[in-house]
Amino acid sequence: MGTYWKNISDTQIPEKETLAKKLNIHPLLASLLIKRGIKTFEEARDFFNPILENLHDPFLMKDMDKAVSRLSSAMRQKEKVLIYGDYDVDGTTAVTLVYSFLKSLGMNCEYYIPDRYKEGYGFSMDGVEWAKANAVSLIITLDCGIKDGIRIAKAGEYGMDVIVCDHHNPGELPPAFAILDPKREDCPYPFKGLSGCGVGFKMLQAFCRKEMLDESPLMDALDLVMISIGADIVPLSGENRVLAFHGLKRIEAFKRPGIQAMLRQAKFEKEKLTITDVVFILAPRINAAGRIFSGKRAVELLLTTNEEDAKNISEALEENNDTRKGLDKLITKEAVQLISGDDFYRTSFSTVVNGDGWHKGVVGIVASRLVDEFHKPAIVLVTSGEKMTGSARSINGVDLYDILSECHDLLEQFGGHTMAAGLSLRTENFSAFRDRFDKLVKKALGEVLPEPSIEFEEEIQLADIDEKFFRILQRFAPFGPENMKPVFLSSGVRNAGYTRTVGDTGAHLKLHVTQDGRQTPMDGIGFDLGDWATLLQSGEKTDILYTIEDNTWKNRTSIQLNVKDIRIS
């Protein structure tokens, strides 16, 4: 099955010429802005120059006044406060942020990261008992809590108040002292896409304003918020764009030892870090701690101010990450074999697999691999006794949370987002759940089997790509959901010489191409496209899909096409 090229451009955007003139930019760039909801000069100014002053008032969030009043009381009464967070990137960055900030104010704080295998996801009963045994009177949950009503009720029975800072879709609200979650139906907060760490940041921002504290130390910690935004695949629009933009600047200026140590481990040599680097370099290493060893190790790394400690912990995380890669590869192979050997999957609209003895720490990654392999929503479960637990990943057009909600009677527990979720069920419900889940996915997709596709935004001429075009395009960053890096189509492209295969096995393609109207040839790289070399070298005209990036080689930086796919014109 070939890859379908899906044109998501709209050539009928009459406003683009007007906006292009106002901004003195190419109409194609104006079209990209309009598709991102940017239609006026003022909106474009804010988009290209995100400023912290444009962050929303944190007190617009439901229960914020209650949360910060309780926090103020805890500070004045010198109460013991427990900062509790999930073991993934969002949770560990959130714990690092809130714990370190409150600790810097002299508050009596401890932090707690649950054991992925003994306690599972969310606010655990072990965590409640630990808090009771350690005389905690206030618990702040980060990136969890919204679905943990039973445990929060138990904490209340023990005389502890709980402030929930979460960003997952709520069902019935838990009996917490205060619930900060922009996805609450009764929450008027204007931006719904915050990460869990982002919600924690807003609470601290409100706390600073109530206590009339200097907010600049909090802004120094935007590197943590930015990492959570990149890793948790939340929208990179609105308030998240401002937070991520300034978080990337803080990484360069603040130079947190733990982050620098991870970058050195990864042999990162570029001048500037991007959100893509966060997703593929930092996030897997931070996540590896909770997947293989303990999420506490990630918090220790992010908290430390000692470079030697940072070096030692980052080396341990590198080992964890190497272990994770091996498990990921092995379990993916076994899962693919299961799917290939089961007739159910020949016509199914989803893949739901389970394995006895699979490592729980990598099932989310394996689910993502299966989505890439089969282009269907995937759930990977691990069987342990009479129970299965696992992770789900989705595709465009399928809201996992909504579909799992319709399967709630077959599930023990579930939670998550549109594109990613976690769940558990009893083994006897597996077949019924698999069937119902598949029928609901089929309905969501309009009974049309999904096919692999690449979406592109605009068809452009290579001649359109000059230094000014590229310079303005770079200012669209940071890229991510709701602001993806634009993919372009250019038709009738031909070899201008020097096109060849590269890499140890010749799997990749180094392009040197031109097009009618383009005087100077352009360079490009096409990963896993080496098979096209002979055809291009023959002079055949082709169409290419690509993003535009800069490439530095021997201290010389130039514009390069990152080619995603090729077809004969």
Q: Can you tell me about this structure?
A:
This protein has 569 residues and is an alpha/beta fold. The protein folds into three domains: 58-254, inorganic pyrophosphatase (n-terminal core) (Alpha-Beta Complex), CATH 3.90.1640; 342-444, Roll (Diaminopimelate Epimerase, Chain A, domain 1); 454-568, OB fold (Dihydrolipoamide Acetyltransferase, E2P) (Beta Barrel), CATH 2.40.50.460. 42% of the residues lie in helices and 20% in strands. It is built from 21 helices and 19 strands. The protein has helices at residues 15-23, 27-35, 41-48, 64-76, 89-104, 125-133, 149-157, 196-211, 216-220, 222-231, 238-254, 257-265, 275-292, 295-303, 307-340, 344-347, 363-374, 400-405, 430-444, 467-474, 533-537; strands spanning 4-7, 80-85, 108-112, 138-142, 161-165, 178-180, 351-356, 378-384, 387-393, 413-416, 420-426, 453-456, 458-459, 488-495, 500-502, 508-514, 522-526, 542-553, 556-568. It has a five-stranded parallel sheet with strand order 3-2-4-5-6, sandwiched between helices. Helix 5 links the parallel strand 2 and strand 3 (108-112). The longest helix has 34 residues, at 307-340. The radius of gyration is 25 Å and the shape is globular. The model has no long low-confidence stretch (mean pLDDT 93).
